[in-house]
Structure formats: C-alpha cells, structure tokens
Specification:
The protein is α+β, with helices and mostly antiparallel strands and 136 residues long. Helix content is 35%, strand content 21%. Strand 3 and strand 4 form a beta hairpin.
C-alpha cells in the first residue's frame, strides 16, 4: 500500500501560490455564497475547490494500478473514506461519504482530491528525474 499526504494548503502568499498553480490547474469560479441558484457545474467546482484547499492523506490500495484503483482518503475531520476511480474520461467514480451518496453529481471533495493528487503526480513524473549540474 502506497501512502501519500496531499496537503494543498498554501505555504506562500495566496497570489504566489495561485501563479505557481496556474500552469497546472485552471481557475475555479463560483457564484456568490448567498446565491442558492447553482448549476451542477457550480456544485462540482465547489467540491474541486474544497479538494484544493483541504489536507488529505491518500493511500492507494494497490500500487500496481496507480490511477484506476481504490484509494483510502483520510479527511481533515479524522474520518477515512474509500474512493474508487473507474474511468476518468467518463467521470465514473465512487466514494463512501454521505455527500457522494446524496448529491447526484457523481463526485465529492474526496474524489476530486484523488484526481488532483494523481494529476500532480503525473505532472511531476513527466518532467523526468532531476539532474545535478556540477560546475568547476
């Protein structure tokens, strides 16, 4: 079992972290908090934003399958949920949390946290190994 801590809390200023993340992640726009008339996409964006801002401990149940697998997601509340990634292209996921069971969106912050974690891991591995340049 592979364990990774995926903390997305900003360590730098908000603007600096947004600029750094801008190349990898797109902006998430939300309607005003007091506006109850939201679309499904607005609600999905809320969950994506919570996944970016939250701190999760993500464990892949079977490291042989880095993407299409079952993941254990430890939430900041202390609870742990099981997330299953079936198809990214068709957005087929499952999670044991109450939000996933009730919202009808097919996603939740735990699913979005796993997707974000996998995307960041994929981007890091595509850059290749770091090389040390010795001068002198």
């Amino acid at each position: 079992m592979t364990e990774t801590t995926a903390s997305t809390k900003p360590k730098k200023t908000k603007r600096a972290s947004q600029a750094a993340a801008g190349a990898v992640e797109s902006e998430i726009s939300l309607p005003p908090a007091h506006d109850w008339r939201t679309t499904d996409q607005d609600e999905i964006n809320r969950r994506r934003l919570r996944a970016r801002e939250g701190s999760f401990v993500i464990r892949n149940a079977d490291a042989r399958f880095p993407v299409f697998s079952n993941f254990s997601v430890g939430s900041g509340s202390g609870l742990t949920y099981t997330v299953e990634i079936r198809s990214v292209a068709e957005r087929q996921f499952a999670c044991t949390c109450q939000d996933f069971r009730k919202n009808g969106l097919g996603t939740c912050k735990h699913v979005e946290a796993v997707l974000l974690h996998r995307k960041r891991a994929s981007n890091a591995s595509s850059r290749g190994p770091l090389r040390t340049v010795r001068r002198g």
